[in-house]
Amino acid sequence: MKYPLYLGALAISMMFACSSSSETKEEAKVPMNENEVSLTPEQAKHINLKTGAVAYGEINETLKLQGKIDVPPQNLVSVSIPLGGYLKTTKMLPGTHVSKGQVIAVMEDPQYIQMQQDYLNISNKLSYASKELARQRELNLSKANSDKTLQQAETEYKNLKVEQMALTEKLKLININAAQLNEGKISKSINIYSPINGYVSKVNVNIGKYVTPSDVIFELINPSDIHLNLTIFEKDLHQINIGQRVIAFTNVKPEVKYETKVILVSHNVGEGGNSEVHCHFEKYDKNLVPGMYMNAELQFKNQKVQFLPEDAVVSFENKDYVFVEIAARKFMMHEVQVGETSEGKTAITADLKGKQVVVKGAYSLLMKLKNTSDEE
Q1: How many whole angstroms separate alpha carbon 226 and alpha carbon 279?
Q2: Which of 38, 216, 342, 348 could form a disulfide with 78 if both were Cys (CB 3.0 to 4.6 A apart)?
Q3: Where in the chain is the domain with CATH 2.40.30.170?
Q4: Where in the chain is the domain with CATH 2.40.50.100?
Q5: Range(s) for CATH 2.40.420.20 in the chain?
Q6: How many C-beta neighbours within 10 Å does residue 266 have?
């Protein structure tokens, strides 16, 4: 009877032993954290591994933008003829430089003659009405005429005065000085003068063409106050301030730098999440013309940040990481948000205060970690 009991105890003992062995094997198969990597002393020495703490200080940040040269409305002028007419002569071509007050075209039309004739006729009538009014006032003082006759003379004089003033303003629209007009100076042509200093950007007519008051004959640009209109993302708007310095350059000559300053930040965000920043050129260059595309670098004020050497940050699948030491020669890959890189230092936003970070050999750790993960 004892023999069977012995066999039963032995079987139970063997069963626990097998179970214990099986559990030990299962525990051995539990993988380590997929973001952890360990090195042997030889491996750490081979990759010249070094660790260090994050540093704190200021770093210059630069925002790279694109845009084009623009002209403010007050420097862009459309020239038209308020009363219409035929273009008689002009020497203007796109790109021609003009000065304020310079004759840029000569127009002619029969209506110009008629307006001058009407003005002179009204002036003659007004001269007679003025004398007649004076005579009626004298007569009225002696009661030699009625008040009604005097009132009619006054009304006639005032009506003619209004007509004369209206014709004077109309003549101003076609650049004729009514005060200098007389019977011997009636002209069928008028001069068109440039209202600004600058150059001609467009010529929309040809000799002999009739233009209506709504037609634009020339477009003129004063380039002395051209602006750089830059496109900026909504997320960066809060970092832009009036007066900030912007360095601009073209793709054709990137080595030539133009200094500008922010003069206006738009508060309107478009459908694409973009806004506009307007910059003023410190010095005018004739090579800069409206419509030209330019690149720009906007200098932020010095930002207080924590930063690491540039080699401490590695990228994998469009994300940025650093390796934080969690034990002797054992490291955890930690995702970070990076900022501007300047003079070999990269700004980061993750809080790594008091931690040791791999500052040399981070790329080797990334390769070992991902190669190990692939093998598993």
Answers
A1: 9
A2: 216
A3: 63-73+222-302
A4: 83-221
A5: 36-59+304-375
A6: 15
For residue 56, list its beta bridge partners: 306
Contact status, residue 280 vs residue 297, Cβ threshold 8 Å: no
CATH placement of domain 36-59+304-375: 2.40.420.20
- For 354, the enclosing helix (H) or strand (E) is none
Locus of tokens 């309107």: 268
SS3 270: coil
**At which residue do the structure tokens 């070999």 appear?**
344
Closest CA to 304 of 349, 246, 343: 349
Positive or negative, the CA dihedral 136, 137, 143, 148 is positive
Average pLDDT, the chain: 84
H/E run at residue 103: strand 103-108
Q: What is the distance between the alpha carbons of residues 334 and 353, in angstroms, rounded to a whole number?
A: 13
Q: Are strands 210-211 and 85-89 parallel, antiparallel or unpaired?
A: antiparallel
**C-alpha pair distances (Å), 28 with each of 39, 63, 376:** 19, 51, 14
Which strand (E) or helix (H) includes residue 372? helix 362-375
**DSSP conformational letter for 196:** S
Within 10 angstroms of residue 369's Cβ, the number of other Cβ atoms is: 20
Identify the CATH class of 83-221: mainly beta
Beta-bridge partners for 31: none
Provide the terminal-to-terminal Cα distance of the chain, rounded to the nearest Å.
Answer: 53
Whether 334 and 276 have beta carbons less than 8 Å apart is answered as no
Structure tokens at 292: 């030209």
pLDDT over 80 (residue 36): yes
63-73+222-302: CATH number: 2.40.30.170
| pLDDT exceeds cutoff 50 at 135 | yes
Structure tokens at 15: 């069963």
* Cα of 61 vs its chain's centroid, Å: 19
CB 343 within 8 A of CB 57: no
0.90 surpassed by pTM = no
Q: Distance (Å, rounded) from C-alpha 149 to C-alpha 146?
A: 5
